[in-house]
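Hi everyone, sorry if this is the wrong subforum. Our group has a chain we'd like a structural model of before ordering constructs, and none of us has done structure prediction before. Sequence below.
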Amino acid sequence: MPGRQHPVIAFLVASPFEILDLTGPSSVFERATVDGERFYSIQILSTGETGTVETAGGMSIANAARYSDYVGPIDTLIAIGGDGAVAPQSPQLYQWLRERAPYIRRVTSICTGAFILAGAGLLDGHRVATHWLWCDLLQTRYKHLKVERDPIFIKEGKFYTTAGVTAGIDLSLALVEEDLGHALAASIARILVLFLRRPGGQSQYSTLLAQQEDIDNARMRDLPAWAKAHLHQKLDVAQLAKAAAMGLRTFMRQFKAQFGMTPARWVQSIRVETAMQHLEDRTLSIGKVARLTGFRDEQALRRAFVQQIGVTPKEYRERFGELDRSHDARPDSSGKFETDVPSRIVTSSLTNKQPVVAEA
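Answer:
Right subforum, don't worry. Here is the predicted structure as tokens:
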């Protein structure tokens, strides 16, 4: 495609930064190709006095440009997280951001990169995501924000903010999907050996991870992962006790102490969580998802979803599946984009059991 303009992905980096915040998303954008040619151009912008940026571990990248020296176009600006991003920035950087932002199609942050955008006043009045460890500080420091501690990423108009570290990869795949379609984004995810493209409204927390973190009994600690790997089987109390190498009475006593619910309800919650992941993919029929996750049939899956999530599997897929491309940004023949793109965003998580889709 001779003469095609390459949209510039500019990573704004305040040292020291979290290396995966940069390398993860850049790996996604580097693999986005059209007719065998890389679609994006990548530029690293340093907030410091030199063209070198430094990771939290002491590694340096020397081919960055100082932000104030860069005069080229920016299609998507991504403020990278790390300790350097949490620290207050110079007034000159904030002024530069305020002046450049109106001419940038998408302004985004990864993890604590939200502190940089918030410091410039770009996120005032917006709902914002960041790593759950930093939510309180972000809200305390910038009171005009609406910090949400649950979503993986939030989109409001041209502004995107994400949770911690690997959520930047989720965001990057979503941006590629917006620009070039689901098939290419899914292909990149497979190349990078990513299990699933997590949509923005999905919770930062996994039930399985949370359970394993809190369990102090060693034999019970591995039970959630074991159960998830055997969902196709009948997981009754006897089978669970056998997997935990316990007698029935001991198992029931320990299970109640560790999980605070009945084994039947617990198994159902794992089946539902796993079904949610399959439904987000959209490549499987709902009936197939039911079989894979151990439900008798599609109706049993539906009843469990309504009981635990408050929506049907079909409704969940419509809200949390691949992006609605009726509003996709698409490059025209010159490689440029339409910039007035209505945003369709997930505005609440599963924790409040009222996931909705709203226009921003």
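For your construct planning: Residues 263-281 form the longest helix (19 residues). Confidence is low (pLDDT under 50) at residues 323-360.
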